[in-house]
Design a protein that fits this description.
Layout: H1 7-37, H2 41-46, H3 61-66, H4 71-74, E1 80-81, E2 91-95, E3 98-105, H5 106-109, E4 121-126, E5 132-139, H6 143-148, H7 151-159, H8 186-207, E6 224-226, H9 236-242, E7 245-251, H10 252-262, E8 279-287, H11 291-298, H12 300-309, E9 316-322, H13 331-335, E10 341-345, E11 348-350, E12 357-359, E13 373-378, E14 391-400, E15 406-415, E16 422-424, H14 440-443, H15 448-451, H16 457-464, H17 466-484, H18 486-489, H19 493-514, H20 521-532, H21 537-540, H22 544-560, H23 563-569, H24 571-585, H25 595-618, H26 620-626, H27 632-637, H28 644-659, H29 663-667, H30 670-676, H31 699-703, H32 725-730, H33 737-748
Antiparallel strand pairs: 1-2, 2-3, 3-4, 4-5, 6-16, 7-8, 8-9, 9-13, 10-11, 10-14, 12-13, 14-15
Helix pairs in contact: 1-28, 11-12, 17-22, 19-24, 20-25, 22-23, 24-28, 25-26, 25-30
């Protein structure tokens, strides 16, 4: 039995709780602004987090930020900047009259939009060879970083890119960043990291940074293609000498040295067995879609078969290897992907799959050695690959550290198709560059093909989180099955209570604390704002788990109102309910809020949401600050590792929830209000009621954990969390008064015996015609002798 306080105590307690929390919230939302003004001057200059912001699309972003820094802060040693020039816009930094580097803003080079759908500006300094000299976050509007994450942690993440040269060593798409992601800001920091890498390559490509002679050469661009007429047959040695076949030889000493230099703890403790000079792998690669190379290595019959299979413009690569280490591995058997090798060309890369693979027994070139492994791969049709440009085959070598950890290192086999196997296509003459003027190529805007060559960041994130997507999909399907078969499941009360507790634990620990997928009213405000500005699905696809939960929540509103999310999928709601369960087991008295006061307090969350929505129409960033009425960032995203005012606010809400179950959900949650507003669109009513519910029976109303049942017996869809507690009572013939009375009537009017005849008919008593024998009587004596 639940223990409740008296009505008078409930009125006073509810008012005290509401007044105290509103006062604490008003103090809380004022603290971020004060903290910003109290920052050191250097930090205030480096971080412009104010909501005034820099206008998007008015001139270049570089012009807005360049004057706020000394040249030496961006390019060490520089004493002046040249004027912004080119596209993407850069400013040359000089030390005297010597070029010391370049400065640019990432937003001028790539479309850097974060979770807030607004630009994330990072001011970058590059050396003449393309090395990142500095990177500073100068403006953004990301809500989690505006309030939840310290600025120093964000800058520490960005500093991890300093010293990297993505012109000489482009990262492969989907590769993890060089710095660990900060918990709670995964999407924002992944966007920052992606914008840094892509912008460096874009700026270097269009301004000739890091290339011989730089942008000043302005030589006419020569376009080459594979010469399909050259089909001379060459020997193995001739192909090697011409560079048509490239070789990478890795010894045991090379592998051990690479793991020692990686700095990974434990990686060097398990050296490869064998002598230092022993071969670890001897790897060869060749572009066999070129007729001269393909016919030499494959023979005429095999090459003709390959040529007929290739689509127009598609290429093929042959890879062969000897040694104890296999370039194929065994991963392709399980997952279909050859994960040990990867083709990398500038910022583009791709893996081969089992659909691209053909096993060969031997090669046909004269003098070719025997190989342990030979594989013929066709380049995937969706891959960006130019056979006439240099590329490299990246070989990944892994080493097991322990049961749970592995270390990785990579070796590169560089390949350039010899010009003898290419032909020069017709080229329009390039205009001569004036002395001191930037090259025309530097003035050209990045083409869409170049900008979209690598997979979009959101696709990379979805691929990286495939396992999480599968897990949350299974959880959602399970929840749907529970709702569809609720009438059968709730009859098993013990099983259902345990199942709900386990699901809430999964929601709290996995969806909340692990996957960081706590939905927020900030998502609603961002979505409505983007509809009025520059809506793009890409912004909302950045976090796949959050996106899937939002889609599931939106669909569930038509079936189960907001209860599917609020009652089952909200991590903070799960935390409140689980802590309240523990409180009831410890016999903490529960406060029963009178119906009138409960109804009025429930209206607070709608008022809070409308205020936040109104502020967002004026300025989204200000609304995001006031959205700190949600304790989600503190309790779920940051796991209470935050400044003490926020922790106290979240703790007070949880404390109130020990006495009033789901206190925050019922009275203060703006997200719950936002989801409840479209509740009238519901097209199904899954919760059953009897005619006697509410008149006179009040059992369900009294027992409802969130008091979502009115005294008249109807369920308030705006407040129901779909916990199915009332449905357990509906089917319980030992607790539901309606069922108890119904069963009692059935017992009082038992069915007549089978021979009772029809109703109203008098049936005579049937008596036996023969007297039954008394067992005490003796047996008759026979008169026969």
């Amino acid at each position: 039995m639940r223990r409740f306080a008296t009505p008078r105590q409930s009125w006073s307690s509810g008012l005290i709780w509401a007044a105290s929390l509103l006062l604490l919230w008003s103090c809380l939302i004022a603290s971020p602004a004060g903290a910003t003004h109290a920052a050191a001057p250097g930090a205030q200059q480096a971080y412009k987090f104010g909501q005034s912001g820099t206008s998007v699309g008015v001139g270049s972003r570089l012009e807005a930020f360049l004057g706020k820094f000394q040249p030496g802060d961006i390019v060490p040693g520089a004493d002046r900047f040249g004027p912004p020039e080119g596209k993407p816009v850069i400013a040359r930094a000089y030390k005297g009259n010597t070029l010391a580097g370049y400065a640019y803003v990432t937003t001028d080079a790539v479309n850097t939009r974060g979770y807030s759908s607004k630009p994330i500006d990072v001011l970058v300094g590059l050396s003449p060879d393309g090395t990142i000299l500095s990177a500073r976050l100068v403006e953004h509007h990301e809500p989690i970083v505006l309030i939840g994450i310290p600025e120093t942690k964000v800058q520490a993440f960005i500093d991890g890119y300093v010293g990297k040269n993505y012109v000489k060593e482009p990262p492969r798409p989907g590769a993890p960043p060089p710095v660990d992601i900060i918990s709670g800001a995964t999407v924002t920091l992944m966007v920052i990291g992606d914008s840094l890498t892509r912008s460096v390559m874009a700026v270097a490509r269009h301004h000739g940074i890091g290339r011989e002679g730089g942008a000043a050469q302005a030589a006419p661009e020569q376009k080459r293609s594979v010469d399909m007429e050259k089909a001379d047959i060459q020997s193995w040695d001739a192909l090697l000498a011409a560079g048509a076949v490239s070789n990478l030889h890795v010894s045991v000493a090379d592998v051990n040295r690479a793991f020692q230099e990686s700095g990974r703890a434990g990686a060097a403790d398990r050296p490869e067995p064998g002598e230092p000079d022993d071969t670890f792998i001897d790897l060869y690669a060749a572009l066999v879609s070129a007729p001269g190379i393909g016919r030499s290595l494959l023979g005429d019959a095999e090459y003709n078969y390959l040529r007929d299979r290739l689509k127009p413009g598609q290429q093929a690569v042959l890879i062969a290897g000897n040694g104890p280490y296999s370039f194929k591995g065994s991963g392709y058997v399980r997952g279909g992907v050859f994960d040990r090798i990867e083709v990398v060309q500038e910022e583009n890369s791709f893996h081969f799959t089992d659909l691209d693979h053909q096993r060969l027994a031997d090669l046909m070139a004269a003098g070719v050695p025997r190989f342990k492994e030979i594989a013929l791969f066709t380049v995937p049709t969706d891959a960006v690959f130019d056979p006439t440009e240099p590329w490299r085959l990246q070989l990944m070598v892994q080493r097991v550290i322990n049961v749970k950890e592995k270390a990785f290192t990579a070796f590169n086999l560089n390949y350039t198709l010899p010009q003898a196997y290419t032909r020069l296509d017709a080229v329009a003459p390039a205009p001569a560059a004036q002395a001191g003027a930037p090259a025309d190529a530097a003035q050209a805007a990045p083409s869409d093909d170049e900008a979209d060559a690598a997979p979009p960041l959101w696709k990379q994130i979805w691929v990286a989180k495939t396992v999480q997507i599968v897990i949350v999909s299974i959880a959602l399907l399970t929840l749907i099955m529970v709702f569809f078969f609720q009438n059968q499941i709730v009859k098993h009360e013990v099983f259902y209570r345990r199942f709900r507790t386990v699901f809430l634990i999964f929601t709290l620990f996995w969806i909340g604390w692990y996957a960081q997928a706590q939905l927020s009213v900030v998502n609603v405000l961002t979505f409505t704002t983007s509809l009025r500005t520059d809506f793009s699905w890409e912004y909302f696809l950045m976090d796949p788990i959050v996106f899937i939960l939002w889609i599931a929540t939106a669909m569930s509103l038509l079936f189960w109102n907001r209860g599917a999310f609020c009652g089952w999928l909200c991590p903070f709601g799960a935390l409140q309910e689980l802590t309240n369960q523990a409180a009831r087991k410890l016999r903490v008295p529960q406060i029963k809020v009178p119906h009138g006061l409960n109804t009025r307090l429930a209206g607070l969350k709608y008022l809070i949401f409308l205020v936040l929505f109104g502020i967002s129409l004026y300025e989204l960033g200000t609304a995001e600050k006031f959205a700190e009425v949600e304790p989600f960032k503190t309790a779920i995203i940051l796991k209470f590792v935050r400044d003490w005012p926020f922790v106290i606010f979240a703790a007070v809400l949880l404390l109130a929830g020990l006495f009033i179950e789901r206190f925050y959900c019922r009275y203060l949650c703006p997200l719950g209000a936002a989801l409840a507003i479209p509740a009238r669109l519901r097209i199904f009513d899954w919760l059953r009621r009897y005619k006697t519910c509410g008149n006179p029976c009040q059992l369900c109303a009294v027992d409802c954990p969130v008091q979502a049942i009115n005294p008249e017996g109807d369920i308030n869809p705006n407040e129901c969390i779909q916990c199915l507690n009332c449905q357990q009572l509906y089917h319980n013939d030992k607790r539901c008064p309606h069922l108890i009375q119904k069963n009692a009537k059935l017992k009082r009017h038992k069915a007549p015996p089978p021979d009772a005849g029809i109703p109203g008919e008098i049936v005579a008593s049937r008596k036996p015609t023969v007297r039954p024998r008394d067992p005490s009587e003796s047996e008759p004596v026979s008169s026969n002798p």
